[in-house]
Amino acid sequence: MSTTTATETATGRLRLLVEYVSDHPDRAVEAYRRYLARLPDDARKLADDPEAEALLAMLAETGSGWKAKAEAIRRAVRAARSAAPLRVVTEDDAGEAVDVRGMATVPNGYAVTEAGVHRMTDPPQLVAWDPIGVTGVARDEATGAEHVTLTWRRFGRWHSRIVSRAITRDARKLCALAGDGVPVDSNTASALVAYLSACEAVGGVSVDAATSTMGWQRTGGYQWGARTIGGEQVQVVVEDGAQQLVEGFTSSGDPVEWTGVWRNIEDHPRLVIAVYAAVSAALLGVIPEAKSYVIDYAGRSSTGKSSAMELAASVWGRPSVLMSTWNGTHAAIEAHAALMTHLPTFLDDTKQAKSPELVTSVIYDVCSDRGKSRGKIDGLRRTSSLRTVLFSTGERPATSHGQHAGAYARTITMQGMVMVGGDRPDNRRLAEWLHSRCAEVYGHLGPAVVAWLAARRETWPDLVAEWRGIKARYAPERIDSGFLGRAAGHLALLELAGVVVERACGYRLRADAIEEAGRCAEASAADADRAKAAMLDLLSYVAGRNVDLMRTYMHEGNLRDSPEPDRAIGRWDEGGNVGVLHHVARKALAEAGHAIEDVLGTWGERGWLVRTGSEWRWQARITVGGDKVRLLGITPKGLTESGWQS
Known about the structure:
Layout: H1 3-23, H2 28-46, H3 51-60, H4 66-83, E1 110-113, E2 116-119, E3 125-128, E4 132-140, E5 146-154, E6 157-164, H5 171-175, H6 189-201, E7 207-211, E8 215-216, E9 222-224, E10 227-229, E11 235-236, H7 240-247, H8 255-265, H9 269-283, E12 293-298, H10 305-314, H11 319-322, E13 323-325, H12 330-339, E14 343-348, H13 356-367, E15 375-376, E16 379-380, E17 388-394, H14 405-409, E18 411-415, H15 425-438, H16 445-454, H17 460-474, H18 482-505, H19 511-528, H20 530-543, E19 549-555, E20 558-562, E21 570-572, E22 578-581, H21 582-591, H22 596-605, E23 611-612, E24 615-616, E25 618-624, E26 627-634, H23 636-641
Parallel strand pairs: 4-7, 7-11, 12-17, 12-18, 13-14, 14-17, 19-21
Antiparallel strand pairs: 1-2, 2-3, 4-5, 5-6, 8-9, 9-10, 15-16, 19-20, 21-22, 22-26, 23-24, 25-26
Helix pairs in contact: 1-2, 1-3, 2-4, 3-4, 9-10, 9-18, 9-19, 10-15, 12-13, 16-18, 17-18, 18-19, 20-22
């Protein structure tokens, strides 16, 4: 029989089915089942006959339920068309077999050829119209997440992509990869899921370490973009949006050229601080006790703050890629900071933030070393670990966007001109030169310091001890409390970064930069003492309503209280303790622009509150409306140190 006759026979059978369904709808289902038995052979012949589509359209209109049946036949025809020209593939077809690069063994029952991947049934089942396979498995030891490397050929070229293992086990999710060129569609997705599972089960696939963050890894190395320094290579697995950041960790020019950059900025302490702070991020993985912190450059335009951030970014890679803005959601900024573990995070221009509260909240979360807890359908999402140095710029200090006392304590703000000498022509030329030079020469100092640290792991305990000594020198009497005590750790990390830079690269430690950082920290602390300001605001509020404070006094030999309990806002004890009703304290602080949650912990740490159990409160109670109510107790120390009493 000729090819033309065979095609007419297949088309004729389809035509007979359509006519039979129209004439005998009550017996049509059985006829349809018989037709399906011949469909695998007929589909390949119908694929080349334009009349077949018209007949299928007629079949879909014959009645209820037949639209779906017509679509089933149509899918079989499309699959046959995708596989054409195709003949039965056997194990003897070695000449047509295709080796997927990196794939050790083809699973039993499958053939990978120029025509794609087929399951060896009779007739063969199309799995993918291009060669594809699993060529690697990667496991993130920190999270336990597993990923697989898919490799496929498209338009004569090989492509690879790392995806979550969960995607390769879900036909719907796998189908979404079609946009990246993966040979899959809704017709073949289920078959491809089974094949990819078989590829893993057959063995011989390499298993590698993976990570979703930069910085020091459990395997011993330091992840700088796609490169692992000082340890076995680790595979970076991140979302598409983060991949661009990863690619920003690269180098341009050479170390000698970057030394030229250093020579031009070393006499400007605030620029040196930018370099030291950028390097100090790597030390967060060396010194577990050290905390993340914020370097904030604040001032009007043309003060050099953008040049400082570009300089800091050039320590690690390409500034234009690594620098982002405050124009993002809290979740997006947090994910950005989580990726930049043991690396600096750069956010330019607080004015672009979606709200003032966002700036304060991000600073607090970053410097708490942990992101927000977030829920999901079956529980809680994994909380991000944030170990970074956050660089911020803006026209006003980042901490001025909110009243969160903790944000002040964790931020070193440098206001005004960045360069020594102010707005001079030579400084403007330096800023312009830095902008262009940092775009050409970058990615040298940071990797060099990391390589030096990785080669001397045995000395890390000595670095920890050195950091503790520097920290004690900055705040010997206030190490465990107060703003300067908290800033001491950041200042110590900055100074140690300068020491390490000198040892690793020969750039002399600039004591003037360390001193300038200390002055800025002291200025930030003075401005930062919102706890003191809040206490004074609360006491002023209470004093202004003196008549509503309960006092215990002796009258004719008996203890009496004044005023009436239901009018009271608090109590003044003869021993010197002041007690304020919680709701009154909250209202008073809110009217003054404070939040009680932001200052309560600091008040407690300073001994300004009477502590009962795990809560800061005064033990005394008063009766309000017949109920016993606890008070927020303020100690005599709180009255004295806040400046209320001398």
